Amino acid sequence: MSLAVPRRERLAFAAGDTGFNFVWQTIELYLLSYYVRILELSPAVAAGIFLAGGIVDLAGDPLIGALVDRLRGRISARTWMLIAGPPLGLTLALAFLAPPFEGPGAVGFLAVTHVLMRLCYSLGNIPYATLTARITENPAEQVRLTATRMQGAALGGLLAAGIYNLLPLSKQWYGVPLGAIVLGLAAQPFFLITWAGVRERVVLTSDPVGIDRQLSGFSLLLRKSGLLRRLLLLIFFAGLSTTVLHKGLLFVFDRLDAREWGYAATVVPSVALFAGAPIWAALARRDGRVKVLQFAALFHLLAIGTAWIAESSPILIAGLISLAIFASAGLSTMFWSLVPGVIEACEARIASEGCAARIYGLANLARKLGQAVAPLALTLPLMLPGEDVLSGMAMAALFAMAAVLGLAPRRGELRSARENPRRSD
Q1: Are 25 and 155 a contacting pair, CB within 8 Å?
Q2: Of 120, 130, 148, which is closest to residue 15 (Cα–Cα)?
Q3: Whole-model pTM?
Q4: From 150, 170, 251, 304, which residue has the greatest number of CB atoms within 10 Å?
């Protein structure tokens, strides 16, 4: 069995997700509201921009995953963060820049900057995600790495939300791009910490194959591994529900005429993830990842459903939404902790030349497609009288619950060909 990963190295690994979440939480919590409330785009047009980004991810993420696997002998996974970091910070600022054009030109400008930002994010984040499987092959250590990573992500989101809440200009049109510039720059040292602080111990002995075979290997992986197919669908629906919940926060409290509560609520996802990730990970080590995933999905659905049915005061809604967000942290921690086991199974049985970057590319793609479709789930309620965003949140949570029940790995499916001595899910 692999030795335990030192705490210092786990923290260095988590620093990368702090940097990435300076970017992603800015997108997750503020970009849709920025499009609709500040730039005054129609909800349908704003949702279309997010969907366009998801469509580009559909082609771009597999190519990036194949490229990273192909070049792994020359460019380590952690080095890609230094390559992609500066362009990512620049494109984040551009995505929050008021368009210099009007009409269709403005929409085109926003769509182009949005797509460029997502491509830069993928170029750094996909190889970063593969580090979980390359730092250690011990499943228990992979769960710990995932939990520490989730805490790093939460810290990034918390700092991002804090900056937007503390900046006196944050609620004006010129304050939002300023926050994006600050966070894009602040992310760079965190990428450097991960690059300098982690070791890629798991080295594949086989030579990497060409990109053409890497790309054809996507079809092979999806065709041969029902486990992978189900995991990707699970990540899609869990990501959809979590994103609908996060993107809808400002709109929910706008409807209640409590906008200040909405800005305060944007801090909750990061606090819940930071505090909740180790709790969910400890539960998983005790009860198994699949059982905890099912519990988190049910908790998530019940909290949102109760908020929808009993909608009244901002205090009650804030409490129920906070519980739902805590459960969504469990969803995220659990589905990411399942990915290394799927990689191990696929590399043992299907792709001995290595497929970690490709599988993480597919997992990231599934998550981002769910996030790209999420604004569409909010569009209809926003276009109807009353803007009942909670109804869209409840429907997305119901789909996530159904996906967890029908698609989660079954007992024994994650057992490695190396038969690690710890019990499997």
Answers
A1: no
A2: 148
A3: 0.69
A4: 304
Q: How far is CA 420 from CA 250, 341, 352, 408, 423, in A?
A: 46, 11, 18, 21, 8
Give the span between the Cα atoms of 96 and 29, in whole angstroms: 13
- The string of DSSP letters for 27-61 reads IIIIIHHIIIIIS---HHHHHHHHHHHHHHHHHHH
Contact 270, 154 (CB under 8 A): yes
Instruction: Kindly report the length of the chain.
Output: 425
- Answer whether residue 173 shows pLDDT above 70: no
The predicted pLDDT at position 186 comes to: 93
Give the span between the Cα atoms of 119 and 327, in whole angstroms: 29
Q: What does the pLDDT look like over 81-101, one tens digit per residue?
A: 999 999 999 999 998 888 888
* Residue 416 pLDDT greater than 60, yes or no: no
Do the beta carbons of residue 111 and residue 104 sit within 8 Å?
A: no
Residues 345/416, Cβ–Cβ less than 8 Å:
yes
Binning pLDDT at 50, 70 and 90, where does residue 295 land? Answer: very high
- What does the pLDDT read at residue 392? 85
